[in-house]
Amino acid sequence: MSRQQYGEKFRQVQAYLHSGDCYQVNLAQRFQASYVGDEWQAFRQLNAVNRAPFSAFIRLDEGAILSLSPERFIQLRQGEIQTRPIKGTLPRLDSPLADAQQAEKLANSPKDRAENLMIVDLMRNDIGRVAVPGSVRVPELFVVEPFPAVHHLVSTITARLPMTLHASDLLRAAFPGGSITGAPKVRAMEIIDELEPQRRNAWCGSIGYLSYCGNMDTSITIRTLTAWQGQLYCSAGGGIVADSEEAAEYQETFDKVNRILQQLEN
């Protein structure tokens, strides 16, 4: 997507926002390049540097999925539910003092806090559809977490799943994650489908496990590359709200993938 094309999509999202159609839309663009080499070795190199807590590798018939996700979608352990949506991002800076100020800036950003709160409310609603009534809690709100390339604003929502329900019921109620769609979720997904020129495929889906005893943990597949038939695909996006700035949102998509792509070049 060219800079001009992104601007056109951004303005279309803004029109929907100002008309009251939705409150937030996660608009993304996809990057593509040819590659040579072994996907597993590339993943090992990326994983060693990025230290993402939800990294995963899946071998495909004609390629692979290399996920370096920092984001938990839903965990279910002994009936306890936890989701940790990420919404709000600023790049890391070289100077320790400037980097600390950058983290403080993110923590106090009215725009990023508003975006984050919208998704917290959305996830509370999604989980609340299947959780024990009155069990939904928000123990952490607007926590800045540093990663090698960026700072993220993260919140935590917890609840309890009734013994009569299964992890699959929880997934059906909450998938896909609100942090990579928008709010209201269904309308945001319709707008994404209308405006984004490519299907998202593995990106912004989920990778995880479901154990025999009913425990589950899943990621949201951001920072995720798809290698397919000699082509490498990598997408990045951000939540757009009414007061978002086009240039800043466009730059954020590069901030999220620059470090990964530079490592592959090396």
Number of strands: 13
Label the overall shape. globular
- The residue-averaged pLDDT reads 93
Q: What is the CATH homology-level superfamily?
A: Anthranilate synthase
Helix content: 25-40%
Tally of alpha and pi helices: 7
Q: What order do the helices and strands follow?
A: HEHEEEEEHHEEHEHEEEEH
Structural class: alpha+beta
CATH architecture: 4-Layer Sandwich
- Report the portion of residues in β strands: 25-35%
Main sheet specs: 7 strands, antiparallel
Radius of gyration: 18 Å
Domains counted in the coordinates: how many? 1
Report low-confidence residues grouped into runs of 5 or more.
Answer: none
Q: How far apart lie the N and C ends? A: 25 Å
CATH topology: Anthranilate synthase
